[in-house]
Amino acid sequence: MILKKITFFVFFINCWAICFALPEGPFPDAVFDRNIKTVQFSKVGWEFSYPILQFDDERPLLLSFDDMNTNYKNFNYAIIHCDADWMPSRLSYSEYLDGFYQNPVTEYHSSFSTHVPYTHYSLEIPNENVKLKLSGNYILIVYQNSDEDNPVFIKRFVLVEPRVNIVPDIKRPSLPAYQNACQEIDFSILYGDFPLENPYQTVKVKVIKNNQWKFSNEDLKPIFVRNTELVYDYEDKNLFLGGNEYRAFDTKSLRYQSANIQSIEFDGAAWQVMLKPDNARAKFSYFYNEDLNGKYLIQNQGGTDASVDAEYVHILFNFSVKEPVAEGNVYVYGGLSDYNCYDDNKMKYNAANKAYELDLLVKQGYYNYQYVYVPNSSADVDERYFEGSFYETENDYVFYVYYRPFGSRYDSLIGVKIANSLHRS
Description:
Elements: H1 10-19, E1 30-31, E2 36-43, E3 52-54, E4 61-67, E5 75-82, H2 93-96, E6 97-99, E7 102-104, E8 107-110, E9 119-125, E10 130-132, E11 136-144, E12 151-160, E13 165-171, E14 182-190, H3 199-202, E15 203-209, E16 216-217, E17 224-226, E18 229-232, E19 239-241, E20 247-250, E21 261-266, E22 271-275, E23 278-279, E24 296-298, H4 306-309, E25 312-320, E26 328-333, E27 348-350, E28 355-363, E29 365-375, H5 384-387, E30 396-403, E31 412-420
Parallel strand pairs: 3-12, 22-25, 23-25
Antiparallel strand pairs: 1-12, 2-4, 4-9, 5-7, 5-11, 6-10, 8-9, 11-12, 13-14, 14-18, 14-19, 15-16, 15-30, 17-18, 20-29, 21-22, 24-29, 25-28, 26-29, 27-28, 30-31
């Protein structure tokens, strides 16, 4: 039984971050140029939404990012249609796009009155230059000038044409061995009069925890079909580690110390915010703490426009561990690291302080984070090692239903559903 499935490898991410080469295989969601920070991709006016579009959406997706090099750069972008496994579709761009394949990022502004300067860029999808014609998975590639083969970053998003209804049933596992640490994700797909042909062969379903594709179940087939319903009601193949609620820190204001902050100092060049020492939670009982499932919010109390007047702040993490972990590394993980494990969010062990430490530059706001372990022998992100895992933990589960009838050349996305574990049965 596989409780979590990693859809791409951390060592590939580290490699791409050095050489920026466009991968041939499943496209990751990753930032390769580490001078690029605070990459956000969500609905306009809804910062915590996932990058999911419908054809009739009134709100487009808003991409924004900061370049820590203050000189203006000529960033361009391209959109590629992918199959259900994030491989390029066998389609020409004119089949899935109305408009130009390559377009410039034209909206940019320099930071204002900040000690650490940066340039803020933004882009809406779709826009007057680009309209999407087909449902399915897409990647947005941003690169400098016309060098598409050397991306600055890649972001995943989807366009759904709802044709089926997804009915989730999130609950405590029925098997005793998994009842304390896992969550069981059962569901049905109701397809009504939609002509769903041979669903065992033509339908793919992916269930993603908190829309982090590292934590996914992508191999489920319906147990049976009754009338116009596909039933996915397993006992072991549909289990996810519940994980734990995220930790948090708040730097929306640098005038006072909010919860979890030990000190705030200005060193003449930038702000230094030291967090209170953290400890492992794996051996403690579950404690509910409302979180954002890893997300963050950019905000500057007292400012006028956080996109350009929020400061970049050095966050000093201190994670108390008696001895360094063997044969692996420890990372600060969450939206602040793009849900990836890069060199710049890898912690170093300080033997004198008996703690892992990290200095991470982030933009002012409210952040979630966790401490994760990545063994040298694999690329698995182990969120349970330090944080523990509990069936009570609040998580989002995003269901994606893809359909490729015989003769079709691409995977259409015919259903998306977001369900929360607090509404379990």
